[in-house]
Predict the structure of Type I restriction modification DNA specificity domain-containing protein.
Amino acid sequence: MKGLIMNKNLESMRWGEFVVGEIFDFAMRGKRLIERDRVKGNIPYYSASKESNGLTDMIANPLFIAKNKLIISTFCDCYYVEGEFTASDEITIFGNDKLNKHNGLFIARIVKSNASKYAFGYKAFSERLMKQIIMLPIDSKGEPNYKFMESFMRKLEQKHLQKILAYYTHKLESIGGGADFLFVALKLALIILNPLVILSVAKNLAPLVILRKHEVRPKNPMRCFATLNMTKITFVILKSCEARLKNPITKNPYPINLKATISQPSLRVA
């Protein structure tokens, strides 16, 4: 029922055509930093990779820093990145003073719907993206309705959060959890709602990957990210206590003490 209501909300809105280059007052192409020249650090470096929403590396020597912007790859993959980041020349970065995490997610889905227009022989370079026409909900003045887009995505976010919370509560209880696990499940759900979470964690936490159907060790425990889509939920936590993974989770799990810089949730507009 909620899904039907949300779709009706979209259908009842007035929509208008906009040229991408005209709705953003900030636009720039990223700068390439080849792998051998990168220094490991804590600033996300994005490229045209299809994995991890384009996150390629974490570096300490960016050629520039952007913050709270939309990124569009040469294959027209589009994401909103919250916080500071940098990007390669395969990425075009857009922004304006009305853009935020939630309306940015809405616009990202609209932009990405044009991906079929681009291919290896016709990539979505900056000059083409600037001329790309997209449809957006409009307000009474015929301008992009940023408030509606934000409200819509907030409601959609809550809908997904409820599903994730229910899933993790059930999963934790099924492997020996109890009342204490509701708190743990809520923490996990709040984090995993976002496909990319750069975590700063306590040193005593073990690397952990939770999939929908089974648990596996991360191949690269130093790459810390989370992914949410229709078939898989992945959550990776950093560092040490390998032995803990060999034992069943008890009713008194070690505390999860972390800070998160959240990027792009993988939520559908329709």
